[in-house]
Amino acid sequence: MESQIRQDRAEDSLEGHRAPNLRGGFQPADGRNRPVQGNQYEPLETKLDYLKHCSDEESRLRAVIAKKYPEHLPEFEIALNTGLRPSEQFGLIWDRVDLKRKIITIPKSKNGRGRHIPLNSVAVAALRDLQRRSSGAGGPVFVNMNGEPLRGYKHWFEPAVSEAGVKDFTWYCLRHTFASRLVMAGVDLRTVAELMGHQQIQMTMRYAHLAPAHTLAAVERLVVPVSQRLRPTRRKSKSSATRTATTAFSQSLAVRS
Predict the structure, then answer these.
(1) Which of 37, 66, 161, 185 is the most buried (most CB within 10 A)?
(2) Contact at 8 Å (CB) between 108 and 118?
(3) Are 170 and 61 spatial neighbours (Cβ–Cβ below 8 Å)?
């Protein structure tokens, strides 16, 4: 687990170089690769029949996991839907998981602070699947089909990525995908920073370019419709002004009486 924590720190320090501009996850191509369905990099050519119908990286990787490593699909779903760091995920115990309130508690994250991670319906379903093979409360969340604790993901994830034909993709890219998809869905950067456990907003700002429509909508609020800008101000006629003044005077007399 200590080696996993060291890797987490190294990955976070590389975040600005690897993600999302270069290879942050299932992300839009950066000009060096042709984007395909879902704005993802195009996977490598494959001779495997069961993968030929998969046109993007995620569908390719999911197909390999479903065929060869189905018991590890919950790990994949939780990483993709929570943004947990690997050390946080594979060190998780059931005492820190509240499925009723749909929340995971990390007592001490990489930056030394505790944090709470909300769970969407996909993550909850994956955790319930893991719960069925678990030994009970207090034990590790991530176990194999025999109930033995999992120490990591490399023994199955790296072969899966290779067979899927996905280039330069690591487990940590799932965390980047989580953040990127939140930003592209219009979630504000402060909330994304909180969900990612970033201590400094500068770490999260590296995803800001993925929300051009969101920022455009913000500045568009400054625009006054042309019809309103060109509408002339109506001047009251003399008779209208006189009637208004008379009415106001009458009302003031009524109040004083």
Answers:
(1) 161
(2) no
(3) no
Cα 103 from Cα 195, distance rounded (Å)? 12
Residues of the chain under the 70 pLDDT cut: 1-40, 214, 226-257
Our CA angle for 61, 164, 173, nearest 5°, is 55
The C-alpha atoms of residue 8 and residue 35 are separated, in whole angstroms, by 29
Q: Quick check: 74 and 129 in contact, CB under 8 A? A: yes
- What's the length of the chain? 257
pLDDT of residue 248: 54
3 state SS of 140: strand
Closest CA to 152 of 106, 86, 108, 88: 86
Report the topology of domain 2-211.
hpI Integrase; Chain A (1.10.443)
Q: Look up residue 132 and give its two tokens.
A: 């069925």
Q: Put residue 102 in one of left, alpha, beta given phi > 0 → left and psi -120 to 50 → alpha.
A: left
E strand or H helix at 97:
strand 97-98
Task: Report cis status (omega within 30 of 0) of the bond before 225.
Answer: no
List the chain domain ranges: 2-211
Q: What is the rounded distance in angstroms from the CA atom of residue 149 to the CA atom of residue 171? A: 18
Task: Give residue 11's Cα distance to chain centre.
Answer: 17
d(CA 158, CA 135): 28
Cβ neighbors of 103 (< 8 A, separation 6 or more) are 116, 117, 118, 119
What is the model's pLDDT at position 242? 58
Identify any residues that bridge with 93 across adjacent strands, giving them in sequence order: 140
The structure tokens listed for 185 are: 């869905």
Strand extents, DSSP E, the chain: 97-98, 103-106, 115-118
